[in-house]
Design goal:
Shape: elongated
Order of helices and strands: HHHHHH
Number of strands: 0
CATH topology of the largest domain: Helix Hairpins
Structural class: mainly alpha
Length: 156
């Protein structure tokens, strides 16, 4: 089962139900290990999805993660290459929007299609890479941008 479409409340209810199922199994069905293994597998998936949703990411945390990722994998820090990569990802996101929301758009058999969620994350990674290279604290700049907007300044 795919748990990614459930709300956090639904996931917590599912978590409780699976705990009850495991308790019930322990009380009466110890002879069929396969049932317990299936329930345990679902339990772990639900627990993982809850943990993913409960993790708080600040923009600063994401930017630090990208910096570590680039260093670990020895990715380029050339701002021109990163900017071109960002443009490519924006194009892929546009294609994902077209595939997902335009019923008239037909994807050719040779095209590669990722989900919009995946492409938006790729955009954020490139954006953070560019900001890191230019030594820009995105979280601080976003706070300043929001504060300026609240003071009547137009957001660009």
């Amino acid at each position: 089962m795919d748990y990614s479409n459930l709300t956090l409340l639904e996931l917590c209810d599912m978590y409780s139900a699976l705990i009850n199922l495991m308790d019930l199994y322990m009380d009466c069905c110890m002879d069929d290990q396969s049932i317990y293994d299936e329930v345990l597998k679902d339990f772990e998936k639900v627990k993982e999805e809850i943990n993913l949703r409960d993790t708080v990411f600040s923009l600063k945390t994401v930017q630090q993660y990208v910096a570590e990722l680039y260093k670990e994998r020895q990715y380029t820090k050339d701002i021109m290459t990163l900017t071109l990569g960002l443009c490519e990802e924006v194009g892929e996101a546009a294609k994902a929007v077209n595939v997902s929301f335009n019923p008239e758009y037909k994807l050719s058999a040779h095209s590669h299609s990722d989900t919009l969620e995946h492409e938006l994350c790729d955009i954020l990674v490139y954006l953070c890479g560019i900001a890191n290279t230019a030594e820009i604290d995105l979280e601080l700049q976003m706070k300043r941008k929001i504060k300026g907007d609240r003071n009547g300044k137009q957001m660009d």
